[in-house]
């Protein structure tokens, strides 16, 4: 069985550097040039939002949608790339201001499901059976604005319609506790998998865990991954780092908390993740201060740190680990881990 990892990122991870407090600071890079950078950086998989793959997705006929997606498939094949997943970008459409699947307006809920069905079709045309559902605005700013019991059922109903739309599609729910909405309905992987087991085909609903999202929920990302791995439900990861429980920072993986990063790699190794063939997604952003000619360095650095931590996990002395555990000497075990990470 292969012990090699496969890596992916999304075109949004090469950005112009705009943030809520300032405009772009780097020039826009054409989508085709972003694709050309994947192999150069050592990546194989491309993550897509539906409108990354097919611009103006809502306005296209079914035939136009198919034609545009298949043209992109040819481009990917030419670059030696594969699509990892497609995700519907509902949160940027004005119609989704109050959520898509959980909106109080039935017309909006219908639009959200129809739009996501189109994203399922795009995924099929590109050659992937994986869709990621980041339920960005599926929550509230004040709890009295929605019936939460009903909202969970709306989400289950929507997922059921997607599963029935295409019998090959697999849905990975990406939980996040807040941002952009104040409080989300599916804040952790436990919530996501509980929803999965209520659907018409639980075998086709799993999860994607992002480091920063787990941190924002006050949880350990490696434990969230372990929970999903124990149920064979970890279908992708978004690795990054986070400086405290604030906004979603998407910092270079391992740049803030190397010990936490080590444990995320360790649990992926323990769970046999590379043998599944699933991707290590790096959802990281370049610092706003980064100059344009080196604005891809965060991706290369994240991949390098991950692979060096794989070496650290695999080379940790198992006899020391066994002896410390048998003696219940966890102080010694902790020091052994720290010294190993420090290169001693």
Task: Output the keywords.
eight-stranded parallel sheet, two-stranded antiparallel ribbon, 344 residues, 13 helices, TIM Barrel, alpha/beta, globular
What does this structure look like?
By secondary structure, the chain is of the alpha/beta class. The longest helix is centred in the middle third of the chain and has 21 residues, at 106-126. Helix 12 runs antiparallel to helix 13 (330-341). It is built from 13 helices and ten strands. The two termini are 31 Å apart. The radius of gyration is 20 Å and the shape is globular. The protein has a single domain (6-314), classed as TIM Barrel. Helix 1 (31-41) links the parallel strand 1 and strand 2. The chain has an eight-stranded parallel β-sheet with strand order 3-2-1-10-9-8-6-4. A two-stranded antiparallel sheet has the order 5-7. The model has no long low-confidence stretch (mean pLDDT 97).
